[in-house]
């Protein structure tokens, strides 16, 4: 099994005055179905501790999970920025899912824009990838930095998937873990992303 670092969303429970890291168990199941072993990473680690964690785990891949918007929680943005810097430096295969793709765009200097009709809907995507996918996002990218290639768009032109030109790194605006049973298309694509790295 290959080892996969997975970032976590941040949830603030006002009634308990608690801030929690959270990860959908189905994303861990999805990683295992693809042949991986998931290692969630906390958003409380400082730079030194996070780099030690990455060194100790020595992952074969990274997943930036969904949930939250970029800018909602600085601790998560900081964690994912450091992980992306490290993964890019070492060319570790990386997948950004929904918010994770948004983070890839902003981390590389791109900008996000608000989109409509993309929360709780299914729609078709076209390009190098053509499929019918789920959608749970309020923000998307109208363009991406030059180091990325757009590999799928929605009918109205919203960017739905991107691929880095010289690093095994992709961003998908859909949640493969939310389609049950898991689609073999996305499991196979993730497996190939990891193994080509």
Structure characterization notes:
The protein has helices at residues 25-33, 47-57, 74-90, 99-107, 184-196; strands spanning 2-6, 9-13, 18-22, 36-40, 61-64, 94-97, 113-114, 119-127, 131-136, 139-140, 148-154, 159-164, 169-172. By secondary structure, the chain is an alpha/beta fold. α2 (47-57) packs across α3. GO terms for molecular function: hydrolase activity.
Main features:
alpha/beta, nine-stranded mixed sheet, 5 helices, globular, GATASE, PuuD-like, hydrolase, Gamma-glutamyl-gamma-aminobutyrate hydrolase family protein
Topology, pairings included?
Elements: E1 2-6, E2 9-13, E3 18-22, H1 25-33, E4 36-40, H2 47-57, E5 61-64, H3 74-90, E6 94-97, H4 99-107, E7 113-114, E8 119-127, E9 131-136, E10 139-140, E11 148-154, E12 159-164, E13 169-172, H5 184-196
Parallel strand pairs: 1-4, 1-5, 5-6, 6-13
Antiparallel strand pairs: 2-3, 7-10, 8-9, 8-11, 11-12, 12-13
Helix pairs in contact: 2-3
Condensed summary:
The chain has helices spanning 25-33, 47-57, 74-90, 99-107, 184-196; strands at residues 2-6, 9-13, 18-22, 36-40, 61-64, 94-97, 113-114, 119-127, 131-136, 139-140, 148-154, 159-164, 169-172.
Question: Element order, helices and strands?
Answer: EEEHEHEHEHEEEEEEEH
Shape: globular
**Overall pLDDT:** 93
Question: N- to C-terminal separation?
Answer: 15 Å
H/I helix tally: 5
Query: What is the topology, as strand order, of the major beta sheet?
Result: 4-1-5-6-13-12-11-8-9
Largest sheet: 9 strands, mixed
Provide the structure class: alpha/beta
Beta content comes to 25-35%
Protein name: Gamma-glutamyl-gamma-aminobutyrate hydrolase family protein
GO molecular function: hydrolase activity
InterPro entries: Class_I_gatase-like, GATASE, PuuD-like
Keywords: Hydrolase
